[in-house]
Amino acid sequence: MQTKTPLAIAITLTLAMGAAAPLHAAGQDVAATSAVATDATDLDRIEVRAQLESQIRAVDLKRSSDAIEDAVSSDALGQYPDKNVAESLQRLPGISVTRDQGEGRFVVVRGLDANLNSVSIDGIAVGTPEDSSRAAPLDVIPSDSTERLRVVKSPTPDMPGDAIGGAILVESASAFDRDGRSLRGKIEGSHQQLSGETSPKAAINYSEVFADTFGVALGVNYQNRKFESDNSEVEYDGEDDAAPGDVTAINLQRRKYEIERKRIGANLNLDWRPDEDSKYYLRTLYSRFDDAETRQRLIVNFDDADMVATGTDQFRLDDLPADAIQKRMRYRTKEENTFAASLGGENRLANAVVDYRIGYTKTEERVDDEMEARFELDGDDLSGTLDQRGRMPRYTLSSNDWMDNANYAYDRMILSPKRVDDKEHSAQVNVRFDDDNASYKFGLLGRWRDRNVDVNEVELRRGPDIDLASWTTGTPEHRHGSLGQGMSSALMRRYWARNSGDYSARPQETGDNAVTSLEEDYVASEDIFSSYAMGTWDIGALRIIGGVRVENTRFKAVGNSVDVAEDGESYTVQPAVANSSYTNVLPGLHLRYDAADDWVLRFSANKTVSRPSYGDISPRVGYSRGDEEVRIGNPELDPYESTNIDLSVEKYIGSTGIISLGVFHKSIDGYIVETTRQNDPAYDGYDVTTSINGDKAKVTGAEFNWQQQLAFLPPGWDGLLVGASGTWLDTDFDPGLEDREGEDFMLPRASRHVYSAHVGYEKYGLSTRLAAVYRSEYLDSLGAGRAFDIFVAPNTQLDFSLDYKFSPRVSMYFEAQNLLDKPLELYQGTRSRTLQMEEYGRTYAVGLKVAL
Question: Strands (DSSP E) along 67-197, which ranges?
């Protein structure tokens, strides 16, 4: 038998080009399928390299799936310049990401909030280190820790139902995924344009099968990335009924971020297959994400001056007090850990197949050292001008004293530690009975989840003055203007370690400190018990899957009710307790038809559910009598429940290509929104902020995907690989805002258009790819009126990769990310009112890969 390597693999074609894939009945003997492959050894062989191999695997996963899904294989992860799982997933149709410091963090499926997705690692649901959200950040998982990624957009009844957006399945490698012994390693150095820093990255993966029955797969990876970003943010104000372009900038901030981000990942997977009827496995995956961030900030408060209009969007600033100009220095380290382990097996009995699994996941976040020192300019009043005719306001000041740190006086120190623990135990069992052209499947799943959130913040304004000049460093470079002299977070931390005992809160801030340290704390447990029954019937080329899933949820939580006196000098706190229980019945019908000439048609109609965010449902009350404000959690919230319809048609082009078109519709009952109202009879005269179940939200969309190797071209050109995808959305929902009745609203975080495209070439030892992703604007949050709604501007990401093989076992690669140097831009009301502009620069990487 010819030896296969990861870089050059001989694949036996089991189907003639253009022939339709056979539809196997559910539960068909695996040995029979293996026999077909064995009998095909005399067919032609093709040599498949990294990009093409991964494309074949992704196409095969989609074609063989009973659900509507898309996938990315491990080789594809190596070909894109992606640092984490979130960025790898954005290449799929209908998928976009929200970013943190330029890196993809949360995955958005079909325009729906990441809160509405479920995420699992090797079949085990994973929690989130976020204190109030259910959205699982996927930047904490390095791409090198995974073998394949799948996004199921219409789950079958045997899958958990909490997937209104989609079910994101992260799978690590089994030794049986590879052929014989495999040892792969890579080292990399990356250079970030703004910081000028070069950062290391390394990964090694090993797998081997012993005696054809026992497999071991092990992977370890490490990255330490140092980078910077330049940020400017503007605050606008005006009348509640103002037109979007009529609000005025009241302050402008420039922020400089210096970040050191470390990722460590490891996975150990064991498989034992003593015979054809038995499989046993252990899957473990660990990732650690450390983020050390320094933020320098300059703030100019224009509204503290007498603002005199001198023209359209032009103002003269008179009598601007010195303390309207502020400097702030923040430092914090954030550690997020994720661990997932599952132990299970599968046994083929005389009349049934039984599989079972127990699992444990733990996610945690630790922010133990967050501190921010605030200073105000001390001196005479200033004057100046403000011009907001451009997308980013410009200003001038009559004196440059603000640039010198020696002219600033200490204002306050803010400490903001936070700890989040999220643990889940689970157990499940499935039984499948096979009949001629049919199978019947039943299963039980129990999930027991515990969360503990401790969010603290305290302001300390009493204490000795701090000489900011003693923390001075060189002036930091910033693309949008000067921040004046720089500040050293290392010197700030050193000072605080010696002198923190000299600082305390003022009496009038006792209540506010109690609110910020107690209001968001809670301890919660969530128990979910699920059962399902599902049947699969094959009628010729038609497969029918029908069934129902029932999920019962029991939620318990204890939070705090904090009542602050009007003078702010005292408060009372009492425990707030919540208990809820509800049951969701989730039917599903899925049809798949394998037509002639490699056409596949799919249809599904089902119901899915998503549970309220922890921050929305947790019991809490923050009562600020001085500010006449009340913030309330709402344990009475109902879960989101969605009725979904999907229809798709797919044309497979040999074993490497696909053209697909799908349409879908979601009708979501009880879409949860945050509201502020003034007519609550229980809090007369107060602004009451809480979350409620709004009216129905609707999502209608279409997805297109095409990818293909252009093998029909003349020699030399036949190494081209091309692909393009597009998603079009029409969304509508009523947030239930009393002052905005009759307005039409986009669903938050839902882009109307998401496009991606790539062109690659693989031949003569060369593998190269240029990939682009475009996401149109989307609504980020709702304000009091149209002029206060916040939008994220359109964005295009363009990346390039090149890999050259010196031998079948050694290759070098080059990657370039964010080639267009596009910023993250938010605007308020209209595009001419830029709210936030954050730039990251380009990143380049060079690396070496070895396969033994």
Answer: 68-73, 95-100, 103-109, 117-121, 124-125, 148-154, 166-171, 182-192
Neighbours of 16 (CB within 10 A): 10
Secondary structure of 104-123 as H, E, C letters: EEEEEECCECHHHEEEEECC
Residue 788 near residue 829, CB atoms below 8 Å: yes
Q: How many CA atoms lie within 13 A of 575 on its CB side?
A: 7
Domains of the chain: 50-851 (2.40.170.20)
How far apart are the C-alpha atoms of 50 and 28, rounded to whole Å?
31
pLDDT band of 9, cuts 50, 70, 90: very low
Cβ neighbours of residue 38 closer than 8 Å, sequence gap 6 or more: none
What is residue 272's three-state secondary structure?
Answer: strand
Which residue in 343, 353, 368 sits closest to 427, CA to CA?
Answer: 343
Look at the block and give the residue holding tokens 């929902």.
733
The DSSP-derived string for 282-331 is: EEEEEEEEEEEEEEEEEEEEGGGSEEEEEETTEEEEEEE-GGGEEEEEEE
Task: Average the pLDDT over 454-482 and give the result.
Answer: 95
Give the Cα separation of 363 and 141 in Å (integer): 12
DSSP string, 367-424: E---EEEEEEE-SS-EEEEEE-SSSS-EEEES--GGG-GGGEEEEEEEE--EEEEEEE
Closest CA to 281 of 219, 347, 350: 347
Contact 459, 513 (CB under 8 A): yes
| Per-state percent for the chain, helix, strand, coil, to nearest 5 | 10, 60, 30
Residue 81's pLDDT is: 54
CB atoms under 10 Å from CB of 403, counted, come to 14
Give percent above pLDDT 70 in the chain. Answer: 93
- Mean pLDDT of the region 320-332: 97
Q: Is the pTM of this model over 0.90?
A: no
Computed over every residue of the chain, the mean pLDDT equals 88
- CA dihedral in degrees (66, 70, 75, 77; nearest 10)? -140
Listed residue (757, 767, 762) closest to 722, CA to CA: 757
Phi, psi of 782 (to 5 degrees): -95, 140
What residue type is assigned to position 756 of the chain?
Answer: S
- pLDDT (tens digit, 9 = 90+) per residue, 399-410? 999 999 999 999
Would you state the pLDDT for residue 672? Answer: 86
CB atoms within 10 A of CB 516: 19
CB atoms within 10 A of CB 763: 14
More confidently predicted of 74 and 716: 716
Token pair for 465: 């003055």
Separation of alpha carbons 307 and 662, rounded Å = 54
The 8-class DSSP code of residue 478 comes to -
Q: Tokens at residue 90, please?
A: 């954005």
- 10 Å Cβ neighbour count for 240? 10
Q: Rounded distance, CA 598 to CA 18, Å?
A: 7
